[in-house]
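Internal QA ticket QA-208
Title: Verify multi-chain structure generation after dependency bump
Assignee: T.L.

Test input:
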Amino acid sequence: MSVLRPLDKQPGLNTATILLVGTEDALLQQLADSMLKEDCASELRVHLARSLPLPSSVDRPRIDLIVFVVNLHSKYSLRNVEESLHYVDATFFLGKAAFLATGAGRESHCSVHRNTIMKLAHTYRSPLFFCDLEIEGFRATMAQRLVRMLQICAGHVPGVSALNLLSLLRSSETLAPEDL
Amino acid sequence: MDETVAEFIKRTILKIPMTEMMTILKAWDFLPENQLQTVNFRQRKESLVQDLVLLCESKRASLRDAALLDIIYTQFHQHQKVWDVFQMSKEPGEDVDLFDMERFKSSFEKILRRALKNVTVSFRDAEENAVWIRIAWGTQYRKPNQYKPVYVVYYSQTPYAFTSFCHLKSNTPLLSQKFETHNSTMPLQETLELDMHMDSRIIHENRIEKERVQRVTQETFGDYPQPRLEFAQYKLETKFKSDFHGGILAERKEPLRCLIKFSSPHLLEALKSLAPAGIADAPLSPLLTCIPNKGMNYFKIRDK
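Actual output:
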């Protein structure tokens, strides 16, 4: 089964697993480190993958949240994410998937337009975060948000589900990219 | 001034040929100009040396000063020594540390002193980020022998260190070890980051692929830092080729021209890091990897 499904496995006790998908390993690694620094009641696990489908040889827990990391400086990174999206079951996009675009701060280096990534996120009805992962402070803040989001997606926050969170996030985006 | 130091200075100055005497003394900069003026440089060498030594005594020359004079003499006469080259190894994937000369010197000296009781270590900066290190060895019970020192010339921006012949062969591995321990000493923050890489809560799904990329990169570029190159240029001239018969450009007789310029403070290292960083696939295009082999960095690519 090369397609990732959100509910195909039993959850681990108090475990929340996030999958970061992106070509730039160093950035993913740094983000993973920042997330694990956070104080969190849940047991966190971070899986880093270059692309999907994932190698079947690895024994992995249920994935609660997938974050697709695109470096706006690299078309290669965008193309990689676009191709990986085909290996994700549609039900993930009910609040258990998100996009993270890095590198927007250095506009002159961007070869992927903001609108492109915004359109992609809109197509998949998923939240899009802009964060320059290379900058420690921004990365730490992003890591905090992701940890909170992950806990919700794993069902560790009573009364809030991934779908709740998604509709909360979505209501703040009143305009579609086409309208901008 | 210690008798041994006086003797050492005397013997060192005696070695200096008269033609170089002034130059070396000026480079040493221990005896001020005005004092040197008072010395008669036309007298017999033995008398000249005596005068100079007396001057050094009056200025209370220390072993440190004497060692510095020895370094300068050796720098002028480096061609008279036989040098071995050592190349320091770094783990592939290790970052190039920012090099702080002062920190290097102080920690190098500390390390040697900790290892050996009797040792004299002196430094002198030279051109092109090089530092000359003079090491006089002793044993646990004997003072350092100043007449048989070892010289190490270390170019800080390279992995190379040159050493002069060490008559105490047993010390050579110790010396190279000192360089390795120093060079692989990373600032604390980076060491912590390394521990985090081992965090078992982080799983690399594509570990096997990562290892393959590392292997291919290592096969292509080797383990050591690349030669420093700042530019590469590729000129392409090609006729338009199309699958569709009759397009706008299909009839064009003029070849299409394209120019790509790469520039970087360290181009080859940047290319080497492309695949491990996930920015490009491994193996890289041979157009990029052939630069060191061919010794070219300007390429013209034409149709066959």
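Spot checks passed. Chain A touches chain B at residues 19, 22-26, 29, 32-33, 36, 43-51, 54-55, 57-58, 60, 74, 76-77 (CB under 8 Å).
Status: verified.
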